[in-house]
Automatic annotation (TrEMBL):
This is YdbS-like PH domain-containing protein. It holds the Pfam family bPH_2. It comes from Terribacillus halophilus. InterPro entries: YdbS-like_PH. The keyword Aminoacyl-tRNA synthetase does not apply. Residues 78-153 form the YdbS-like PH domain. PANTHER family: UPF0699 TRANSMEMBRANE PROTEIN YDBS, UPF0699 TRANSMEMBRANE PROTEIN YDBT.
Length: 164
């Protein structure tokens, strides 16, 4: 007889979306700066004209991908769910290509929280779960919730905690 597993209910906070969008914008600005440097080098070294043409085509193609990436980030954030009980950590993500993951608590080897500069600014943390099968993460949880989830997973898994 199969046991029914209720789907995950917890959503990521809105601040998490803000951090993801800011990360996307930073990436897009870096790409545009790289194009600016390449165009400058093209003018300075008087490269063959086909190189400038290829750079222009690549720039024109990359701009819509920046906007598509923004919308994909927003849609994926709306569809991200997580939950935890005594048996499983559940992760659900994706709008177009959905991924539902059940991580048995007994298979968890370690759990930790991470925080980069953008997450620190918004007082968020990422919870990373490691098993022999792979690594899983829950991005952008409020610090209090991230620590509580980490401690709960560690207690259920009887794993040793690593302080960050």
């Amino acid at each position: 007889m199969q046991a029914q597993v209720k789907g995950p209910q917890h959503k990521l906070p809105k601040e998490s979306l803000r951090v993801q969008v800011i990360g996307d914008v930073i990436f897009d600005v870096v790409v545009l700066l790289i194009f600016a440097v390449l165009f400058g080098l093209d003018l300075y070294f008087d490269w063959p004209s086909w190189i400038g043409f290829v750079l222009l085509v690549l720039l024109i193609i990359s701009i819509p991908f920046g906007f598509i990436g923004y919308f994909a980030t927003v849609i994926n954030h709306r569809n991200w769910r997580y939950d935890m009980d005594e048996e499983y950590v559940q992760l659900k993500q994706g709008a177009w290509f959905q991924k539902d993951q059940l991580i048995p608590v007994t298979k968890i080897q370690s759990v930790e929280t991470k925080q980069g500069p953008l997450l620190r600014k918004y007082k968020l943390r990422e919870v990373e779960i490691e098993t022999m099968a792979g690594d899983y993460s829950i991005p952008g949880l409020p610090e209090k919730d991230a620590y509580a989830l980490r401690n709960e997973i560690a207690a259920y898994a009887k794993a040793k905690e690593e302080d960050d």
